Amino acid sequence: MIQRGEPGSLASAADLYQGDLLDGLTMPEQLDQWFAPYRSAYRRKALELVDRLSRTYPAVGTTEELACERLAERLVASDPTAEEAHRALIRLYLNRGKANAALRQFRSFRDALQRELGVEPLIAEHRENGERPANPTPPPAVEAPPAAVQRDTDHPSVVVLPFENLSGPGDEYFVDGVVEEITAMLSRVRSFFVIARQSAFAYKGRRVDVREIGKEFGVSYAVEGTVRRAADRVRIFVQLADTGTRTQLWSERFDRAASDIFELEDEIAARVAGAVRPALLHAEIEAARRKPPDSLRAYELVLTALPKIWSATAEGNRQAIALLREAIAIDPDFGRAHALLGWCHAQDIDWLWSSDPEADRELTLAAISAASRLGVSNDPMALTAQAAAVLQCLADPDRAAAYVEEALWLDPNNAWAWGGAGWIAVHRDRPETARENFERALTLSPLDPLEYNFRMGIAWATALEGDYALAAKLTQRVLDKNPRVTWALFELVAYSALAGDLVTARDAVGKLRAADPNVSISVMRSTIPRRHVSRLFDVLVEGYKLAGLLEE
């Protein structure tokens, strides 16, 4: 019904949602954990539905309007912080001409956020009907929180400062809108703490050293920028700076046509949010590396493990497992550490590093279960790690999709999650969707440490379409740049042989045997579920045989 898209179908779908999946049903803890990602995905679809239906602005009193209102009220009743449901009700009230009711709803949402999460909403009443005020004014200056403000100091903190308007005063609304959208998108990323927009706007029109900003807000990083608009073009410069050293960690310039201001705001915000996350992560990893090993906390141990996880080497993976176990020993309730540990054990199986695949499979499942039990539903990195582990260990794309969808709901610009979505599409034999998802990941984070993984995904999608010569070429490029990614040799063997290049294929077989003398088709078939889910695997086996790889 949702896919049809017309208001009538959306209204019918809205009435079908009567609460969370299996809500109120008592079940064993293990089964409840298994259902958790599906329950989250089901609820998320309801939130997407109420948002989509409210944006059709159904006529007052119609079936569609009343269905939207009922769904929104059910969602708010079960979760008072459900932003999409509050937004939907505000739109309905404004559409009825009941501005006071809309304001009361907004205040109800604000109070719920303060009560449940201790934060302020980033939405404003005037934006709920898609409009901006004719003469917008900046929000009132709010006293900046002291550095001693209580928050999770294990996570990096960032403030998005008001951008400098290099054009005329008539463009202030656009400049403020860009900053507001960037702040809103970054605030959805649970990996770091973002200072509220209202506090940051206290510095509008003031030139202040970022080191002073860091001290006053107690933040480690600041996003700054300038906007210049001329005729039908807009140029925006954005940079991320370390407030302690004033070092520029990342910067980018955007030159765009100003044909649709709101779309431009969304595009710039998405690109900035997508780039800031990996830049912050890299900075935090480097900071953790500089600390003495015996002084590292659980969070810092996890940071130190990350480069070893994506090193694509057996030794790096073993070191990551040791670091993650140490982090869990310090903080047994650290869900992200458990999720990443599950991913590492799954990599041992998938990349033929395991001496006991069945034991590693049990360790993978135990770690995934622990992460779910501890609750990682607000952590995109942990959710993406769980998805990767499920794909690599269980070859279960539906369960993996539930984790990835939740991650993208929290952080729509998470390159790792888009990469995960690409591999899920490969499992489902949807090469076009897979390529789009991998390319989205590369666009968001072109220098990502998992870039090789995204590009190998594109090679798989190409092979699914039957172009083995191009798939071999793409795989060779990955190996030329990342020779440590030896698992890509399996693909190079098959793609090259199927394309008729037996010289390259047999050379790759030699490299595989040098890395593992026991490598064979049957070993791959029994230990690497990702490779035998797709119809492509049977075709690849023919390539392996042509290249001289033995069955046993």
Automatic annotation (TrEMBL):
Segments carrying the region annotation (Disordered) are 126-147
- Could you tell me which residue ranges the Bacterial transcriptional activator domain spans? 2-127
Gene3D superfamilies in UniProt: Tetratricopeptide repeat domain
Asked if the keyword Magnesium belongs to this entry, the reply reads no
Instruction: Tell me where the transmembrane regions lie.
Output: none
Q: Which Pfam families match?
A: BTAD
Sorted keywords for this record are: TPR repeat
User: Is-annotated flag, keyword Metal-binding?
Assistant: no
The residues bearing each TPR repeat, given as ranges, are 415-448
Q: What is this protein called?
A: Bacterial transcriptional activator domain-containing protein
